Amino acid sequence: MAQSWLILELGGSQLMVGAAIGLRFLPAIFVGLMAGVWVDKLGGRYVLLWERSLLLGLAVVTALLVLSDTVVIWHIMLLSVVSSTLMIAGGPAMNSMVTKLVPKSSLQAANSINQLTFSSARALGPMGAGFLIAAFGMGSPWLALIGLYMLAIAATWKLPKGEPAGTGDETAYRAIMNGLRYVKSDPIISRVMFLAFTAIFVGGLFSVIPVYARDRFDVGSTGLGIMMAAAALGNAVGALLVAFTGGFRRKSVSMMVAVVIFSTAAAGFGFSTNYAVALVFLFLNASAAPLWISSVVTLLQTESDPKMLGRVMALFAISIQVIFLGAMTWAWLGQQIGNDWMLLFVGLAFVIAHAVVMVFSPSIRRL
Question: Which of 68, 171, 231, 236 could disulfide-pair with 282, CB 3.0 to 4.6 Å?
Answer without folding.
Answer: 231
